[in-house]
Amino acid sequence: MQKKKDALRTPAASRPGLSIEVIVETACELIAESGADQLTMRRLSERLGVALGATYHYVPNRDGLLKLVAERIMTTIELLSTTPKSWQPTLRTLMIDFAAAFTRYPGMARYHLANVEATGPVNTQATIMQMLADAGFSTDSSLTLIAALFFYTSGVTATGIMTHDQPGLTTSMVAQRFEAGLDLLLEGAAAQLRADKKARRAEA
């Protein structure tokens, strides 16, 4: 018993095997099991098998931990293409992948939605903006489209309806309607693209 107590008093920095990567990966596992709302620093430390202070040595607080988890999830979502002509299928696939990635971690879409400035994919957004500009969108139209797609996808994912069947509404039905909604947004964007090109020709 004394050895166990002494082990818990071992300074966090000297504890072998503990790192930011291990902590974030373990947090992801816990969130996948029971949701972000149930994640606490104490529960995480218990799963890691370390003292609470050891975890705080690497992560300042729960919010900081959730930020790292959101960033980790975002790294799993990639643009398949940046070709201007393929902007529609590229954005459609990106949003579907976004929804799938965050659906695996209940509660994280809601956190990401509330903290997008801290956890948003800055590099990805810049790449999308360039792709849309090359396709012919104005800057305002590009920003509006990105915001519309993000808030639509995040909102649907944050509700949790994509993970559990509801009375008269199965998850497969939700997925179909979600993708149909994406198509409507992208069709509207295509119409806006035509308007942007027409306006640009009129100015020339």
UniProtKB/TrEMBL annotation:
Matching InterPro entries: Homeodomain-like_sf, HTH-type_TetR-like_transc_reg, HTH_TetR, Tet_transcr_reg_TetR-rel_C_sf
Domain HTH tetR-type: 17-77
Coiled-coil features, chain-numbered ranges: none
Keywords: DNA-binding, Transcription, Transcription regulation
Pfam families, per database record: TetR_N
Gene3D superfamilies cross-referenced by the UniProt entry: Tetracycline Repressor, domain 2
One annotated GO molecular function: transcription cis-regulatory region binding
Protein name (Swiss-Prot/TrEMBL): Unannotated protein
Source organism of the structure: freshwater metagenome
